[in-house]
User: Which sequence fits this backbone?
């Protein structure tokens, strides 16, 4: 009874927060609402026993996306009032409202009209999981049964980063990524950036390693590691990397390349692209995960940094 | 003994929830950024430590207890640092013409 009440309260709060985020006038407030929404949503996933999803939602949905949006708000601040003054016409607003209500209604209908029992591949995954050598079914699905999806996901991230870098003007190409941070070298931020990263790196690597058998994995781990790197950069303790560094670029592409290499080898050894020969699943999954980790950390942090620039402060 | 520990847990967690409530009331009612930060960080840190103390007798191993303590320390560290940063940023905005 009590838990039902608590769950109901969280759901109502979530809906109210979603509405508040949509109608907020100020972009900064909307992003703040979005971050809180992501963290609350993570609580909902914990309640639904989806710990992996909860971790991802908290790290990527609330944390990283929130930080990316905050960065965007900062960049747009100078022109925000002009844009708001131009505004969208009543017609545009009406179309947007109808479209979003329509999508929501279609989703609600879809969920409510699911056949009983809900179609699922879980009964197929469970007996086949031991063949992969990992005990966490999420990791098993992501890196064995649906490895192709994960490969494409990693490639999409690299392409997204190339897209962000492409916003740089020609003369800035090869320059340092991101804004120049001016933090007090003896300030609180510098202190935090010295104390927190050792702990954060251990927690990040733990999450990565635990992902084989328990909730966790490379994405959540990469978010934490990227956050630690960002913290050190923002505190002014380390420079942001230059986009023309060869080792940086190698680190960015090593994940997808290793993934594709393992996939091509699978053509000969297991008879299918991304097939793992008997008994080799666990070590190959480990190779892919280890190769993907630097890619994810670099891409997530560099997406935060934004396009390269040259010269002094912007 | 276990009843005593349960009572300790309930008392500590209820007290912690009270401090969270007080901190939130302060956040909503106080007039400026500094007093709001004061209410939030002081009361919430106390609330968190009380909740952690309340949970400690209920966990099933030393390792879990240590994790709880680590969570408490990390939250203390980040909330102290972040409240300082917010206060400084508020102060800069004030002195700017």
Assistant:
């Amino acid at each position: 009874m009590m838990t039902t009440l608590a769950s109901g309260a969280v759901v109502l709060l979530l809906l109210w927060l979603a509405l508040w985020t949509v109608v907020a006038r100020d972009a900064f407030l909307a992003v703040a609402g979005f971050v809180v929404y992501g963290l609350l949503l993570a609580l909902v996933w914990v309640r639904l026993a989806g710990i992996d999803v909860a971790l991802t939602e908290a790290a990527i949905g609330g944390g990283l996306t929130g930080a990316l949006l905050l960065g965007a708000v900062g960049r747009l601040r100078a022109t925000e009032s002009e844009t708001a003054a131009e505004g969208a016409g009543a017609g545009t607003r009406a179309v947007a409202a109808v479209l979003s209500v329509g999508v929501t209604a279609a989703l609600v209908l879809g969920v409510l009209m699911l056949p009983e029992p809900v179609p699922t591949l879980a009964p197929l995954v469970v007996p086949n999981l031991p063949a992969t050598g990992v005990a966490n079914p999420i990791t098993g699905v992501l890196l064995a049964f649906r490895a192709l999806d994960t490969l494409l996901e990693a490639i999409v991230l690299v392409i997204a980063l190339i897209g962000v870098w492409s916003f740089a003007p020609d003369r800035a190409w090869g320059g340092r990524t991101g804004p120049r941070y001016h933090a007090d070298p003896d300030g609180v931020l510098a202190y935090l950036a010295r104390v927190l990263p050792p702990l954060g790196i251990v927690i990040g690597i733990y999450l990565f390693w635990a992902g084989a058998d328990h909730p966790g994995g490379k994405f959540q781990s990469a978010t934490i590691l990227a956050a630690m790197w960002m913290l050190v950069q923002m505190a002014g303790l380390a420079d942001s990397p230059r986009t023309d560094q060869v080792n940086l670029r190698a680190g960015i592409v090593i994940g997808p390349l290793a993934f594709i290499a393992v996939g091509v080898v699978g053509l000969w050894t297991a008879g299918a692209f991304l097939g793992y020969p008997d008994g080799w699943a666990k070590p190959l999954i480990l190779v892919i995960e280890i190769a993907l980790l630097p890619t994810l950390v670099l891409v997530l942090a560099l997406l935060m940094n934004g396009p390269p620039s040259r010269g002094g402060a912007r | 003994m276990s009843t005593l520990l349960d009572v300790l847990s309930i008392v500590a967690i209820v007290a912690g929830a009270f401090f969270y409530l007080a901190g939130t009331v302060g956040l909503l009612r106080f007039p400026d950024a500094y007093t709001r930060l004061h209410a939030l960080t002081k009361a919430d840190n106390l609330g968190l430590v009380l909740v952690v103390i309340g949970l400690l007798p209920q966990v099933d191993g030393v390792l879990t207890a240590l994790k709880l303590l680590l969570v408490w320390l990390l939250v203390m560290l980040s909330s102290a640092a972040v409240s300082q940063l917010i206060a400084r940023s508020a102060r800069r905005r004030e002195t700017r013409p």
About this structure: The longest helix of chain A spans residues 51-86. Chain A touches chain B at residues 187-189, 191-192, 195-196, 199 (CB under 8 Å). The beta strands of chain A are 176-177, 308-309. Residues 189 and 235 of chain A are 6 Å apart (CA to CA).
